[in-house]
Amino acid sequence: MFINFWYPAIAGSDLTADKPVRVQMLDHWFVLFRDSAGTARCLADTCAHRGGALGAGRVRHGNVECPYHGWQFDGDGRCRSIPSLGPEGKIPPRAKVDSYPVQEQYGIVFAFLGDLPEAERPPLMTIPEYGTAGWRANLIVFNVRCNFERSMENGLDPSHNEFVHPTHGFEGERGDYRVPDLDIEDQPWGSGFMSVFRGREHANLPTRTAMRTNAEGQFDPDVSAGTWHHGPAQMVTKIHMAATNWMHQYLYECPQDEDTIKVYLVNLRNCLLEEDKDARVVERCLAVAQQDIAVLEKMQPVKTPSSATREILMPADGPIARYRRWLALWEGRGWRLDAHRMRSARSERDVVYAIPSPARRLEKNWVLEEAPLVQSDVARSSTGNR
Predict the structure, then answer these.
(1) How far are the Cα atoms of 32, 58, 185, 275, 359 from residue 14, in angstroms, in the given order?
(2) Which residue in 9, 76, 182, 352 has the most C-beta neighbors within 10 A?
(3) What Cα–Cα distance (Å) separates residue 339 from each residue in 87, 135, 210, 310, 372?
(4) Domains in the chain with CATH codes
(5) For the stretch 253-292, what's the b/e string if a residue is b when 16 or more beta carbons lie within 10 angstroms of its beta carbon?
(6) Rounded to whole angstroms, how far apart are CA atoms 321 and 137?
(7) Angle at which helices 148-155 and 318-332 cross, to 10°
(8) Looking at residue 336, what DSSP letter applies?
(9) Cα-flanking dihedrals φ and ψ of residue 288, to 5°?
(10) Interval 66-89 mean pLDDT
């Protein structure tokens, strides 16, 4: 799991003005709430006083109030009220919790979980089609019991469609089946590819058949499809069925811990634009996702192997190998959480960590310890002892 990227925290419609929500991301707990202006805010969930869960409290005067002793924290993480001190009591400067940058886009509240200043932060994956004429969007949210790297690699895998998704190929029965050579394209924060696969018509799936019917009313067996990842846990899959019927799926994955992810899928299509088609399209997207989930939740080992010698990669696995090189690059910057050290320390049950926030680069004297990171030689020389 990596810090210093944007992660989906909650659907915007699920974050109301009247109560906070406790959310797990990167194996840490956070509290999401809306301030007096209705702006979404994200803080570390643990109260600096005596460890109460802020997400179990309430929103009061635009602040989140701890349910244990009533301490109130504003959207910047500053304590604004300590009832036991009385109205004239002086709040100590150390009474603060980490606050994380937030943006609300595409019906999702995103939090930047890291300490980079704004100018240095990787951008959120954008959706150019969102809100434009000729495209219709649906937000689909679901959970998967697997490591996020396994899920991302599945999306980047061009050879699994033939066997995992019966409607995408011939289930290995076509004698001339072969994954074509891939032209992997690098972008500023990731890489991906576009390819062509052949499918067959399914009479019991009228929506899919309609999307793969060309302007002449004929079923088009060839589908252009490809996937690009953006950062460690965001990717877009573009599926071009027939010449003009396209579906673009933007997936924002949130690793809740090492073994569980929450996926926020923004599905866009430029055909079947009527509202009454939404339910059927969403149902079909979830059915395809369940086909992937059935495989992902049974994979061993749960995490990707630490050595390439523990797998046999084929040319079709090129996008996966490239993704792993990107992860190694970000680990070299000191952005990977040290899950082993976190588990070891937490086994003593007397420590709670916080993902470092931007304020930690400007201020000292924090109550919660900073989450341990895998420190490469490059990261040590550039950041010193964090």
Answers:
(1) 10, 15, 36, 22, 27
(2) 9
(3) 43, 41, 47, 21, 8
(4) 1-124+337-386 (2.102.10.10), 136-328 (3.90.380.10)
(5) bbbbbbbbbbbbbbbbbbbbeeeebbeebeebbeebbebb
(6) 31
(7) 140
(8) B
(9) -65, -40
(10) 97
Which alpha helices (H) appear in the chain, and where do they start and end? 148-155, 161-164, 206-211, 278-296, 318-332, 339-346, 377-383
pLDDT higher than threshold 60 for residue 323: yes
Per-residue pLDDT of 263-322, as tens digits, reads 999 999 999 999 999 999 999 999 999 999 999 999 999 999 988 899 999 999 999 999
- pTM for this predicted structure: 0.91
Residues 6+ apart with CB under 8 A from 182: 158, 193, 195, 315, 316, 318, 319
Distance of CA 297 to the CA centre of its chain: 18
pLDDT tens per residue, range 123-174: 999 999 999 999 999 999 999 999 999 999 999 999 998 889 877 666 667 7
Give, in degrees to the nearest 5, the angle at Cα 284 between 283 and 290: 90
| N- to C-terminal Cα separation, the chain | 18
Token pair listed for 223: 């589908």
Pair type for strands 353-354 and 369-370: parallel
DSSP string spanning 227-294? Answer: EEE-SSSEEEEEEEETTTEEEEEEEEEEEEETTEEEEEEEEEESSS-SGGGHHHHHHHHHHHHHHHHH
